[in-house]
Amino acid sequence: MSEPKAPTPTPAGDTYKGWVFKWTNYIKGYQRRWFVLSNGLLSYYRTQAEMGHTCRGTINLATATITVDDACNFMITNGGAQTYHLKASCEVERQKWITALELAKAKAARMQAESDDSGDDFSPSAAPGQGAGSQNAEFQSAMRMLGSKVEDLSTCNDLISKHGSALQRSLSELDNLTLTGEAGEKIRQVTERATLFRITSNAMINACRDFLSMAQTHSKRWQKALQAEREQRVRLEETLEQLAKQHNHLERAFRGAAQANASADSKSISGPGKGEVSDDDDNEFFDAMEEAPEFITVPADPQFHKRSSSNVSSFNSEICQDDQSLNEEPLAMNQESPSQELVPLKKRRTRIPDKPNYSLNLWSIMKNCIGKELSKIPMPVNFNEPISMLQRLSEDLEYHELLDKAAKSHNSLEQMCYVAAFCVSAYSTTVYRTGKPFNPLLGETYELDRQRESGYRSLCEQVSHHPPAAAHHAISDRGWTLRQEITVASKFRGKYLSIMPLGTIHAIFEKSNNHYTWKKVTTTVHNIIVGKLWIDQSGEIDVVNHTTGDRCHLKFAPYSYFSRDVARKVTGVVMDKTGKAHYVLSGTWDEKMEFSRVMQSSRGGENGTEGRQKTVYQTLKAKELWRRNPLPDGAETMYYFTALALTLNEPEEGVAPTDSRLRPDQRLMEDGRWDEANAEKQRLEEKQRTARREREREALNQRSSSTSEEGEEEFGEGGESDARYFFVGFISNLHG
């Protein structure tokens, strides 16, 4: 093969070009092609002139496998999608390409691993300023380049050892060889291996030279940067020391003035007596949270309690009573009748089959769905989790004990805190759950009976198909009722998916007759096409007590790259009907919620986004309302289900024929038979569409064959027949 003189193989990252024979087909056999190796990609062209406009094929070496067949042939494949069978003119030329390809593959794999690590370790909350960020980026870039050169040296060293061993074996064979006809062949092999060793050694020498040159270039710059960092650290330490001295001085001055005012007030009112409250740890006040977008909380002034010691004493006794009632809560909740204690509880399952690892091209399915309603897009079960939307609604009762505590509360404002925490807790199960629940069929139901274990019973039903709507009703023996009607609107926008619940949730407590309502916030699924899926909750919730007029305003802060707050933050204020704040809530929707009693409120602090002053709340020390339960062991292989979610689809006897547990496609997916689940899911959806068209046709015939007055009566009867048709059609769909 006549070809231009190819450049000497250099460490991966530099361009390497040359002519190589490539297998095309059984008719034409091997054909000469121009190959170019650059930046971890191997591309080929028919001629050199095609490099500017037509590339015949490209393979990424980061995931490729390089195999040597014989003296001149070698093969490159990336797992089946692309395979190149190549042949060089001689063994020396083949080894040049093998050396260059191995170096390029090592560097490409290393760069890909560094990219993945940098994406996992990135923390938005720790983002520096632009100036420091540019310096840090430049430093990191230089360090990566130096590290790359070191890795190149290591790779070259391995190749030198490999070729050196082969050369040593050839020389040993030559020493033991007698003067026969094989002498010429052995001498030729020794010559070729010596040539290969020289080429690899030259590559290592060039890599060493580049490394030393780069180190010398950046050495002075690093010294200057290091000196600047040291000087800046010294200045910051001096500034911090001055600020600490000023803060200490102001604090002593403030305490002196406060003590003088307190003594003057006590003398003018009643003089010093036994009614004063001492400054001990029990009366110390703390921040409810450090920052809030709409208000600010600060420690309550201790002098405020000295001026109203009697009120403080009564308030402390009230707090102690509340704490005592909360501590006695589990005991009260466990006080069941003797007959119930003797009946053994059903043992629920704690595992489901592991999620199979099926690959799927997401973009091939989603590219035609942009702008469409999510419920109208035919989705394979690869995007689902093996529970239905009705079961997902029932999962809101994961932390039903919050409603149990609210039912026992004697204070409506404290009860509001528990209800608000229950609102937030419903989202804690979504932090890792990126799978889509199954869309329920029309007339599908789900019953969750936990009356013996937890005192409640729940029932859900799909009451509309387009638009999808579900009704949920739960009742508890511990004095509360929960109901909701949810209609979901969703839009796919290419990069993210927005899910907007439109229904209202009602909670009613029998003892106090308090009736609460609230709505749900928007759920957004990010990185639909590229990157790792993650879920965010954003929006505002107003929990309203229609009996007393109390209100709690909750704000779910959306994720922001520039925010200094913790991720998934939730803040709220509990107010009475006059608008006076009594409690401040803070926490995250995926971890915990806390509440603090408000002692005083005033206008002040920094101006808001609209120029108005924020409200400053003086609060007591925060107390924990709710904390998320840990996930079961191995949850990452079970769709990140919680302990309750693992039992939702557990087969049970005596359930309705329309229960979600009896859906065959959902059961097949849970068992890991996804291909069969996809076929069954498509069959059920098609039968549902056929049944819907049949109902519309019957309704149209009824309207056209009757008068307006008779038509109204017949339409009512037809509605009953439609209801029977829903039930019969649902059963026939399930069982084919």
From TrEMBL:
Keywords for the protein's UniProt record, in alphabetical order: Coiled coil, Lipid transport, Lipid-binding, Membrane, Phosphoprotein, Transport
Ranges where the record places region Disordered = 113-138, 257-281, 652-720
Q: Which residues form a coiled coil?
A: 219-253
Residues of the PH domain: 13-106
What residue ranges are annotated as transmembrane?
none
User: What are this entry's molecular-function GO terms?
Assistant: sterol binding
Q: Does the keyword rRNA-binding apply?
A: no
Q: How does it sit in the membrane?
A: Peripheral membrane protein
Q: Where is the composition biased (Polar residues)?
A: 260-269
Q: Basic and acidic residues bias located where? A: 660-700
What does the entry list under GO cellular component?
membrane
Q: Where is the composition biased (Acidic residues)?
A: 709-720
Please give the Gene3D superfamilies that the UniProt record associates with this protein.
2.40.160.120, Pleckstrin-homology domain (PH domain)/Phosphotyrosine-binding domain (PTB)
Compartments where located: Membrane
Annotated Pfam families: Oxysterol_BP (PF01237), PH (PF00169)
CDD domains on file: PH_OSBP_ORP4 (cd13284)
Which PANTHER family would you find in this protein's record? OXYSTEROL-BINDING PROTEIN 1, OXYSTEROL-BINDING PROTEIN-RELATED
Regarding protein family, the annotation reads: Belongs to the OSBP family.
What this protein is called in its record is: Oxysterol-binding protein
Source organism per entry reads: Oryzias latipes (Japanese rice fish)
